[in-house]
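[audit] Reproducing an earlier prediction to check determinism. Same input, same settings, fresh worker. If the tokens differ from the archived copy the diff job will pick it up downstream; this log only records the rerun itself.
[audit] input (346 residues):
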Amino acid sequence: MKALVRNNDKIKLTEREIPRILHPRDAIVKVTLSSICTSDLHILDGFVPFANENIILGHEFTGEIVEIGDAITALKPGDRVSANCETFCGECYFCKHGFVNNCEHGGWMLGCKIDGCHAEYVRVPFADCGLTKLPDNVSYENALFVGDILSSGYFGAEMCEIKEGDCIAVIGAGPVGLCTMICAKTFNAGKIFAIDINESRLKLAKDLGLADYIFNPEKCDIEKEIKSLTSNRGADCVVEAAGAGSTTFNTAWQIARPNAIVGIVAMYEENQVLPLPRMYGKNLTFKTGGVDAVHCKKLVEMISKGIINTDFLITHTFDFGNVVEAYDFFRHNKNKCLKVGLKMSE
């Protein structure tokens, strides 16, 4: 089969053997549609030290099951599925408490520690936990982002403990930030503020009705603007989805009201510093971490019911045979590209 293999900082489309069932809870999925994630670029750029060499990249995909292990009972060959970006057993301490990112037997595996989805076929461990069957009215395109960026957006909104009418600020109007806004609405948030330096992404958030107010920090005083809309208090909760170093990290706590929650879903490329003397008295709660993607079935149901739609995120599509070109395009065209769709030939 064709597969995109990573060695050091290089990628190459090459031939690999079709994966086999190695464990009774495995499934083999024929990949129909996949996408490139910024975290794939983080691996190539050396910011994920636990990523293994000589593996197939990719962890965001949909497809059709072609083979299952003997322990899988809820899925069968022929089922159309979306995949979770996390591999988790569902049985260990962390899984039972909903912290699947910290599964004792999994975590971020696909495309990082084991072969991922940028291939014609992929082996999914713990497939009974990691695959979600799609209803007939949910297409592969509809469900492409369920297990990663949509789950990340839900994770960001959920960690902020949004109450009805709360004002939420989302830093970063990229794919995860836009998904956070979508999910915040399902929590009945009040005003939603979108913050980014990319004017086209801000306009998209406003035009789609995902944000009530949009702000470019290069053109205004963000803290002043948000306070003017919140009775001089600040945002009830802030989600940092941009990860632009100390700039966006500091903005996150500065625009939060006292006793607010600041949720960090961004992946930083360097350490951040908590300036505790400067924020003393704000009594902020910081929550961070990799996505705990435990709501995939719920998200698919909301897509099926028309409550959530992420189709607009696929701004460019490539045939899988041009995957190396697609990676280059995604890396260098962030201003006009939200997400790339990689289609397998029939």
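[audit] rerun output stored. Observation attached for the diff report: The chain has twelve helices and 16 strands.
[audit] end
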